[in-house]
Amino acid sequence: MSEHGAGSEGRRTALITGITGQDGLYLAELLLAKGYDVHGVIRGQNNPKRDLVETLLPDVTLHAGDLTDMSSLIRALRDSDPDEVYNLGAVSFVAYSWENAAHTADVTAKGALTMLEAVRLHCGDDPRRVRFYQASSSEMFGKVEESPQHERTLLWPRSPYGVSKVFGHHMTINYRESYGMHASSGILFNHESPRRGPEFVTRKISQAVAAIHLGRQDELVLGNLDARRDWGFAGDYVEAMWLMLQQDEPDDYVIATGEAHSVRDFVTAAFGHVGVDDWSGLVRQDPRFLRPAEVDRLVGDASKARAVLGWKPKVGFDELVAMMVDADIAALKAGW
Ligand code: NAP
Ligand code: GDD
């Protein structure tokens, strides 16, 4: 690992896009704990998540900006002057990406290029002055060609989101190869937490199970119960992002647990955690939640990350499910 950056006060500076999201919050906490000066890009004229970030992370400096607006990114870079940039901002909900494919491409695909170009311009004569992390995704593997998936597995995306992530992934590699930038890409498999957005299946399940357990909801309505995902804990995964930027050489890494579970398994574990063994009368399937093209099974091989970064996940599947259900029960009881 290399010591880079660290200005006159011996403190490194990081700029995060997507700081209001699940990963942005965990990453900002991690970097603050490591002594970083942390900055984040926040979009919109009155972002409803600004209060959350300012309450949870009062030491973070926020800069108004949008991934579709190059000048706002250049200003955020100029005003924060970071050693490390983490590009986590994206339209990240796969189902939504069919309904808003062009917007998804603008933010998730072209936004990554816009950020890369802004960083390149900011670096001036020294392309390695700033280290760059791109949030790539296992969704890029889509109609998987082999299992488990690794860094050289063929990319066959199945959604506008997946296609957009492939563009950002290859642009990151291209900027590394064309300009010598320290640009790395983390191919992260699904990672969850109590901070996961309620539109994603794990949080939809944990919230519903908590509400059913407390007698406040009657049923849980889902789509495809057979899809399989490699689910890890977001807190573990942001550590891998940071480790990638501490390496002398930039590279691409798969980050995963190596274990696949079905949506049905997640439902069983979540209900099991509150003492319900037979949930058949509590869950209904609705074609509304099926996708035009499904990714049936994702499972990752993170052996490169383990060998080079020394990274491995700490939180297992059952612990993750229990953590999410417990957090949602506590939130409901507290009236949040
Ligand atoms: P998330 O909770 O959905 O957060 C997405 C973030 O992107 C939010 O902060 C959002 O800001 C921001 N954003 C959206 N549009 C933007 C725009 N036009 N300009 C600037 N920022 C914008 O996602 P996450 O789970 O934290 O994931 C972080 C990143 O990792 C994403 O790029 C995602 O695609 C990728 N990823 C996630 C997973 C996973 O399992 N979580 C796996 C692989 C890759 P607002 O709050 O203003 O909407
Ligand atoms: N959201 C949702 N809602 N998904 C459902 C539902 C439902 O009611 N019922 C079944 N599913 C299935 C989906 O069809 C999919 O196969 C699986 O549950 C997981 O869906 P999501 O939780 O929405 O996540 P995702 O795998 O599509 O995408 C997430 O992981 C990607 C990494 O592989 C997102 O975080 C992406 O941003 C990320 O890149």
Descriptive overview:
With 336 residues, the protein is α/β, with parallel strands linked by helices. The protein folds into 2 domains: 13-191 and 231-255, 3-Layer(aba) Sandwich (Rossmann fold); 197-229 and 260-298 and 315-333, UDP-galactose 4-epimerase, domain 1 (Alpha-Beta Complex), CATH 3.90.25. Helix content is 42%, strand content 15%. The chain contains 11 helices and 13 strands. It has helices at residues 22-33, 50-56, 70-80, 94-99, 101-123, 160-179, 201-213, 234-245, 263-273, 303-309, 317-334, and strands at residues 13-17, 37-42, 61-64, 84-87, 131-137, 182-188, 191-192, 220-222, 228-229, 232-233, 252-255, 261-262, 283-285. Helix 7 packs across helix 11. The chain is globular. It starts with 12 loop residues before the first strand and ends with a helix. The relative contact order is 0.13. Bound molecules: NADP nicotinamide-adenine-dinucleotide phosphate (NAP) and guanosine-5'-diphosphate-alpha-D-mannose (GDD). Residues 17-18, 20-24, 41, 43-44, 47, 49, 66-68, 88-92, 107, 135, 137, 188, 190-191, 197 line the site of NADP nicotinamide-adenine-dinucleotide phosphate.
Describe the structure concisely for a colleague.
The chain is an alpha/beta fold and 336 residues long. It has eleven helices and 13 strands.
